[in-house]
Amino acid sequence: GGKMAARLSGGENRLVSLPLSRIRVIMKSSPEVSSINQDALFLTAKATELFVQYLATYSYKHGRGKEKNALTYSDLSHTAEECETFQFLADILPKKILASKYLKMLEKEKRDGEVGEDDEEEEEEDEDET
User: Where is the composition biased (Acidic residues) (predicted)?
Assistant: First the structure.
């Protein structure tokens, strides 16, 4: 390992706040990965951390979070849906809808073969009221 790996051994592994052991497990879950260089592990962890930070900051700035001084799930799912950069996360951060509304959508789908999204703006009313 290089200088970076050496810096990771002591109390200085706070250069990255994600647990490296978990990142290693996730990386090893890929069949193409046989061994993981310590620098690659560190850089993957750091890149992941910066990405999550960017996603959270973007979602906070562009969501309703500013009004409430909080970051909500709906801010994150809205970002995944609306922002091209984050659209690959749309399946991981789906927009929350009421079960009753989902069942209505399924019924409508059976009737005319496509999912209706006519009144999707009124999601999570309970969260918007203070």
Answer: 115-130
